[in-house]
Every structure is written in structure tokens, then in C-alpha cells.
Design a protein that fits this description.
The chain is an all-alpha fold. The chain has helices at 6-22, 24-30, 55-63, 66-78, 83-98, 103-119, 128-142, 169-177, 181-192, 196-207, 213-229, 234-247, 249-255, 257-270, 284-294, 299-311, 316-333, 356-373, 376-395, 410-414, 421-433, 437-449, 454-467, 474-487, 493-507, 515-521.
Length: 528
């Protein structure tokens, strides 16, 4: 999350719960929530969702075409508008327009918070660059010719009448299964009146109806974004996941029918409704062994294994670490995009964008964060589903990942003999520009083996995560990797950096639209 501390998050979340308790008008009088930021409109209310103090900025970002965007945004920055407010307003504008239903739209939404976090790693004069890059993408998405004439996806909704009985997570899931979006939104509106945390935990059983990458990463990023815009916007942001699940229900019902039957059986079999007694923190040897196990199991067996670990009191963090490590191996072992899967800017051998490894890592990281933020039952379900999800990536792709050599390849590694960190970073910069994935991995391994500080590699890779397009995934994957790097056991950290170097070398050569213009307006050299 983007909060500076747990106390700050609880303070903001608590304010949202008070708002839900006293009601919007009273809360406005008390100064607890800005006027016009209500998530759900009563009959006869405003026909359009608005966002209180962020509305005017959201309108500018939504209405300005990409070729004019920077000429409006850069003066706002210079006059004191914060990057935080720009990202929050863009997220709300994106959610209102796309509602989790547009592919480029929700990918752009998912890149906004990571872009802001990337900004925090940069010198002051360059901090706007990653945010401006994603704002430009957001504007291109909202002004794409295919969106002309399309109504906004999210509009005000009235909660289901209290006389109809209490809304529950089960009613919400049933509405989505019936593909009744209107009913689902009414139920979710009522649930949201109990506050952001209640809305989140009521939504998750519906999210748990499938394990495709966008389903879980969108949910995680929507919840994460509340730390920027406040819990009073939970309904707007979380509704994106409701719309996503509704739109894909026909596919999900077929694809994940076995999973939907298995999950409640595992809860019953392993008595997971109540927390098990912890056996203490698992060590690195356990994580290594669990990673190897997860790489070999079929989806149902993998889900069952995670359920068994939970039942025997294995620390949830250790399970998350094993899942992340196994997902990382998909990046390190991938032979790259086969010829039949090539697309513009994704040639044979590439591993960036929507590659199986990048998707697996983003998914494992999202499942981790959902498990950290959810109720006990939802957290346990998230970890079980993460096991299923990972096994699908390994077993159902038709590619023999388990038998492929992970990077760095020993032959290439032996050819890297430099020792000075500056020389190694110059070498890494050069091989990235040559799109040499193998040597990029070997150079980073050598750099880390010599004990040089990770920050040197991260600073270089961050520069390219901003300057290159990344096929919609550069920001998310950079944030996934740095988050997992911070959490990883000491002996596993290098694997995350090696994977990020490989993806960076793969994505180099397709400049991000708007990057050069942004550098010019900020009086910055193109090379960081």
C-alpha cells in the first residue's frame, strides 16, 4: 500500500467507516467527506459520478487529448499540483470512463500507482516522468477512436432497497453468475455503505471465481489506490472488478468450473474457516523446497498443497514467498515468445509485456497483497487460488519450463569477468541497448555476487522502465519486482533483479509515446 504507516491507513479507513455510519450529508457537514464525492446516488441525484475536490482535475485529464495534455499538466505541476493528486484524479477518471471493461483502460489504471511509486525513487527534477508517461497513455486510451460515442461505464447507482433484505457477498456472487449487472451493482452499493473494508471483503468471493491475471491484479490495484484517493471512493474503484467479473462470467464459468467446486471442498477438508496454530516462520530451505514442489503440480494438486500448508500452520508469508519464487522462475526459464505468438514490438524470443513470466509474477504479487489485506477466509482462499493460478501457468501452457535452464546461463556467466561496479553498470547499459537478454542476466548476477548495492542496478533499470513503452506492463512489473525484492529472503533477492534485467533488455527499443516531449517540457536530458 502507499500509506506511510499502518496507523495512517487505519485513520483514513476509519474516517470512511464513520462516513458510512452517519451518511453522506451529515458527513459533509462534519467535514468528513467532500461534497459531491458520494459513491452512489439516490433517485433524482446527479446523473454522473463526480469526485469532490478531485473532480476538476479528473475532468481536465479526461477531456484533454494526448497531444495537448502536457501543455496543461506541466503548468499545473509548476503551480503546486501534486503528482499524488494527478494520479488519483486520473485513476478516478479512468474508472468512470472504462469501468474495468476496456483492456487498455484497465491496464493503464493498473500502471498509475506503480508510476507514482517509481517517481519516489527518482531525483526531484525527474519525478514527474513516470507519471506523465502513464497520464499520456491514459489520455490516449480515453480519446481512442474506438471509444467515441461510448457512454461512461460507471454511473450513479441506488443501493438495493433495505426492504429486500440485507445484501451479502453471496447475493453479489449470484448476481454476477446470473450476469445481472444492474442487480449486482445495487447489492454492492448497499454493501459499500458499510465502508471500504466491508465492500472489499464482500467483493472478493466474486473475484475468487476465477484466476486470470487481470481479474486479480485489477482488484489488488483498485484496493491499493484507496490509499491515494481515500476510502470514500471505494465504490467507484472496486466496481471496476465487479464489472470485469460480470463481463467475463461466461468464459469464467467454463474455464474455472472445477476450481469453483474445489475451493469450498478444500475449506471443509482442511477446516480452514478458523486460523490454524502457527508453526513459526519457515526458513529459506522450506521456501526453496516449496518452490520446487509448486513447479511440478497440477492446478488441483497445487491448490490442495497450499490448503494443507495453511492447515498445518505454515506461515502465510512463507507460502507467498514460495509462490513468488516459483513465478520468478517462469521469467528466468522462459525460452521467449514463439514465432506463432509474435505481435508488433513483441518479437520472437521476447519476454516482456504479456509474457507468461511477467503475468505470473504480477499475479503472485497481487495474490500476496490481497491475502495481506483481506479477512481470514478471503486471505486463505487467495493463497489457495494463487497455488492453482501458478500451476495453470506451469502445466497448461504446453511448454516444458521445469526442464529449461534458468538464467543466467552458466556459459554466459563465465564470460563476465568485470569486477568494478561502475564497469558492470556500463556493461549492463550496453547489453540492454543491444537487447541481449542473456548477457544482461549474467552481468546482474555477477554484480550481485560481488556484493555491490542493488540500488545501482535498480536506478539503471528504472530509467528504461520509464523511457520504454513496455507493452502496458513496464510499470506494474517494475513495481512487482521491487516489492518482491524487498520481501525476498537474502539468498533469493538476486533472482528478482536478474529477471527484471532480462525483461528490460527484452522491452528496449520501443520508446514510450510522449516521453521525449515530457523531457523537453521539464528541461531534462533524454538520458537519465
Amino acid at each position: 500500500m502507499l500509506f506511510r504507516s499502518r496507523r495512517q491507513f487505519l485513520s483514513v479507513l476509519g474516517r470512511g467507516l464513520v462516513v458510512a455510519g452517519v451518511g453522506g450529508p451529515v458527513a459533509q457537514e462534519l467535514g468528513l467527506t467532500p461534497a459531491g464525492s458520494a459513491l452512489w446516488a439516490a433517485d433524482g441525484g446527479d446523473p454522473r459520478l463526480t469526485f469532490g475536490p478531485l473532480e476538476s482535475l479528473a475532468a481536465v485529464l479526461a477531456e484533454t487529448p494526448p497531444e495537448q495534455l502536457f501543455s496543461k499538466v506541466v503548468p499545473l505541476l509548476r503551480s503546486g499540483t501534486s503528482l499524488r493528486d494527478l494520479v488519483g484524479a486520473a485513476a478516478l477518471a479512468n474508472a468512470r470512463a472504462c469501468g474495468g471493461e476496456d483492456y487498455v483502460g484497465f491496464h493503464t489504471f493498473m500502471a498509475l500507482a506503480p508510476a507514482l511509486q517509481m517517481a519516489g525513487e527518482l531525483p526531484t527534477e525527474r519525478q514527474a516522468l513516470p507519471v506523465l508517461k502513464v497520464l499520456h497513455r491514459n489520455s490516449r486510451c480515453l480519446h481512442d477512436a474506438t471509444r467515441v460515442g461510448i457512454p461512461e461505464a460507471l454511473t450513479p447507482v441506488s443501493p438495493v432497497a433495505a426492504t429486500a433484505g440485507p445484501a451479502t457477498a453471496e447475493l453479489l456472487r449470484e448476481a454476477v453468475r446470473a450476469r445481472d449487472l444492474a442487480r449486482g451493482e445495487q447489492v454492492f452499493a448497499q454493501l459499500s455503505q458499510g465502508g471500504a473494508e466491508q465492500a472489499w471483503n464482500a467483493l472478493l468471493p466474486t473475484v475468487h471465481e476465477g484466476t486470470d491475471v487481470h481479474r486479480i491484479v485489477l482488484a489488488h490495484r483498485a484496493w491499493d489506490m484507496l490509499s491515494l484517493v481515500g476510502p470514500e471512493h471505494a465504490g467507484t474503484l472496486l466496481r471496476q472488478s465487479l464489472h470485469y467479473c460480470w463481463k467475463h462470467e461466461e468464459y469464467s464459468a467454463r474455464r474455472f468450473s472445477a476450481l469453483r467446486e474445489l475451493l469450498p471442498k478444500l475449506f471443509d477438508q482442511h477446516h480452514l474457516d478458523e486460523p490454524s496454530q502457527s508453526r513459526g516462520t519457515a526458513d529459506e530451505a522450506w521456501v526453496d523446497a516449496a518452490c520446487q514442489t509448486l513447479m511440478t503440480l497440477k492446478p488441483a494438486d497445487s491448490a490442495g498443497q497450499v490448503a494443507e500448508w495453511l492447515a498445518t500452520g505454515i506461515d502465510r508469508t512463507a507460502i507467498c514467498d514460495a509462490l513468488a519464487l516459483a513465478a520468478n522462475q517462469l521469467v528466468l526459464r522462459d525460452e521467449g515468445r514463439p514465432r506463432e505468438w509474435t505481435q508488433p514490438h513483441k518479437p520472437v524470443g521476447s519476454v516482456h509485456g504479456d509474457s507468461i513470466g511477467v503475468h505470473a509474477c504480477d499475479s503472485a504479487n497481487a495474490w500476496r497483497h490481497v491475502a495481506l489485506s483481506a479477512s481470514h477466509r478471503n486471505a486463505a482462499a487467495s493463497l489457495i487460488l494463487a497455488g492453482w493460478h501458478l500451476a495453470m501457468d506451469y502445466q497448461e501452457s504446453g511448454r516444458n519450463f521445469q526442464n529449461w535452464e534458468p538464467r543466467p546461463v552458466e556459459l554466459v556467466l563465465r564470460g563476465v569477468t568485470l569486477t568494478d561496479p561502475r564497469d558492470l553498470l556500463r556493461e549492463l547499459d550496453g547489453v540492454i541497448r543491444e537487447k541481449d537478454q542473456e548477457r544482461a542476466c549474467a552481468v546482474v548476477q555477477r554484480y550481485c555476487d560481488l556484493g555491490h548495492p542493488h540500488r545501482g542496478v535498480l536506478d539503471l533499470l528504472l530509467r528504461y522502465a520509464i523511457s520504454e513503452d513496455g507493452a502496458l506492463h513496464a510499470e506494474k512489473y517494475y513495481r512487482t519486482t521491487t516489492d518482491e525484492l524487498a520481501r525476498a529472503r537474502p539468498q533469493h533477492k538476486t533472482r528478482q533483479l536478474v529477471a527484471l534485467a532480462r525483461v528490460t533488455a527484452s522491452e528496449y527499443g520501443t520508446p514510450a509515446p510522449g516521453y521525449d516531449e515530457a523531457c523537453g517540457l521539464l528541461d531534462l536530458p533524454l538520458k537519465g
